[in-house]
Each structure stands twice: as C-alpha cells, then as structure tokens.
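Support request, please re-run this one:
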Amino acid sequence: MVVSSSNRLIDVVNSIIIDIIFSEDENRGLTDEEKRLIRLGLEGALLEEILRALFEFERLNLSRIAWQVLNDNKDIISERTKYADARMGDIGVMIYFLSQYLDGFSEKVLMDIKDIIQRKLDSDCVDEVIIFLKSMYSADMHEKITELISDRLTRRIRNMSLSELIKLLFWMPKYAFERVLDLAKDLIRKRFSSMAPEQIRIFLLALGIKNRTKLDIFLEHMGDIAYLAGFKDSEVAKLLRTKKEIGKAPINLIIIFHSSIEQQDREMVISTVKETFKVNIKTEELPSMVESVIDSFNIKGIYQGHYIVDTLSVLYDDIFLFVAPYKLLAEEVFIEEDFYNPTFEGGEGMCGIGAIVSIPSEKATDKKIYIYNVVKHELGHVFGLEYHCENDCVMGELQDKPMRFCPRCRQMLIKKGILKKP
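Re-run finished. Output below.
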C-alpha cells in the first residue's frame, strides 16, 4: 500500500484511499497494517479530524471502510466524545454517524456522555447547540435527547441574546420549534421588543421561507408580536416566490453591496455588468436590519445562497444582484458533511428573481478574473440560462481566465435582448 510518513489520521486515510482506488480489488477491506495505522492515527486525533476522515470515506463511496473503522475502534471513538476539547456539534454529528452504522452503539454513547452534553449545553456557542440538535434529528433520536436535556435547554434559551435566539428559531428542527416557543414565550416577547417593526417583518418572512409551517406556528403562538410589527396576512403571499417577467431591455437591476465589499471590487462588479448586459443599474447598501436577519442563515461562518436570495426576493421588486463576502453552500439544507469537507460556491442565481455573488476577502485566484466570470455566470442564470453548459463557456466550469458565453448561450441571451454585442 501507499504508506504515509505522517501519523495524522487524514494523511493515513488519504493514503489508504489512493491505494484502494488504484487497487486491482476495489472492493477489498482494510489490511491488518492499514487497521494498525488508522488506530494509531485515531489515538492522536481530535473528534473533528475523525469526522473529516469518515466523511472522506463516504464521499468516495467507501462506506464499507467507514463502517470497518468505526466497528474496529469503538473504544477510541467512545472516549473521544468525552474529551474536554470535543465540541457539542462534533459530538452530535459523531452520534449521527454511529446511528447510520452501529445503531445500538450510538444510543449507548449518548447515554454515557449525557452529563457532558448537559454541561456543554451551558458553555458551547449557539451554533454548536444547533448542529447537535439537528444531528439528533437526523439520527432519529430527538425524543431521547429532549428527555435528557429539557431543563438545561430551557435555562440556556433564557440566557440567550436576541441574535442567538433568532438563529436558534430559524434553524431549530421543526419537531422542537413549538417546544422552544412554549419554553420561552415571555423571553421572546421581551427580546423582540427591542427590534424595529420592519426587522421583525423581515425575520418572519425569512422564517416562512425556511419553513412555512414554522411561520404558522410562530404566528399562532406569538401573533401579538406580529400584530405590533404591522405584519399582515397578505404579506405571507410574498413567500410564494414567482419569477419576475423580464421585459424588453434595458431592464432594471439593483446591485446590493454588503458593507464589507471593497471599492475596487464594487467597481469591477459594476463594470462587468455594464459591458455585458443591457440593464439600468441602481446600486445600494444592504440595509443593516436585513443584514442582521441574514446572519441567522450562517452556521460556523457558512451561509446558504438559496435562503438569502429567497429572502431578498420578497424585499425587492426588481431583479437584484447581491454582492457579499460569505462562504456559500448551494444546497437547500445543511447536511452534516458540510461542516467538515465543505464545497463552497461562487454564488447562486435564480431565473427571473436575483442572484448572490460571493467575494471572500481571502480569494486566492486573480480577483478581477473571478469577479468577471462569476458575475456573468450567476446573472446568466437570472436571465434564463437555467443550466450549466458543457462547452467552453462562462456558464460551465469556471476557470482562472476571463470567460465568455459560448455561441449557444450567447444566442439565447441575444434573443431575449439582454446581451450586449461584443
């Protein structure tokens, strides 16, 4: 086999994966030497590193190897969940992982560390609490965990800040949402009383986009808050997202900038739009109250473009392009793997609605080329190219070079009257 010179678990795992992929027997299990190296790597690994390694096996369709690693090393896995440096979210995801492969053992681990979980519920950040609760839901263990931590969860909720409470409500699994409202009605009223009415309306619309049932539950339990904020039943209709009719060019496009986007990057975005599309451009800053609600979409610094575009779509009548520094995932829901081996997107565009483009501050490639390509790509989706092109095209896989629309995509945009001639 290809033997790693490092004892780091992920290095050992990558060496094994390479060996299996290039092996004559792709269906083989672990050799005795590979088992030894994995155990050695596990002994020095953090729980987060173990999860990253397990998800790497799964990503490459080597679930049988993940099962073998877990089954052969139950003692180490169980002990790692008890370490002081184990975060609550990592513990939850590990229990979820065990539930997929070693069902009975996952519940045993949970019961062994119930006191640790209760202590971490007091100390870990709200993101870790959310990941833990979501993982328990994925593992179909929500009734068990509710029984174990109900009192501690109540105490934690009562000590939350407004931003933490909004984030918890937004991401709380549906089965527990109503329970949280029951536990913290008075606190929610007190915390929400410091919000501007417009901010409450934005939050309610965002909540309904995430899950309409949760909005209905909130309005049923906390209708007085919605009433005081001037939230009308008619506003719920805004949640039924519809494509805006793209009329004859030039059309109106609002470019919304996050406050942290640098001036040179703003100028590059605007110049790319101007030279490519027949649009009337209006620019504005993202309102701070909208930004505070959008912050509820992030867990551990990772955002979902889908929810952000949906939220802005109910606030803006015109087609929009939102430029932000966020690390974006395209999936509609977070899955456990996203926190360990994430694949970030440059943006997300929805036909006839709007787009978000991510310009991370630490972007490694040529920023001008990146902006040039990703802005055209996402607005291409907005203006009707609802696919990823297989040609050498800006609507395909983006490269580190300035890219154009291929003849097929260009012709489609020309027919719509939206594309400027080169």
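Residues 142-158 form the longest helix (17 residues). Confidence is low (pLDDT under 50) at residues 1-5.
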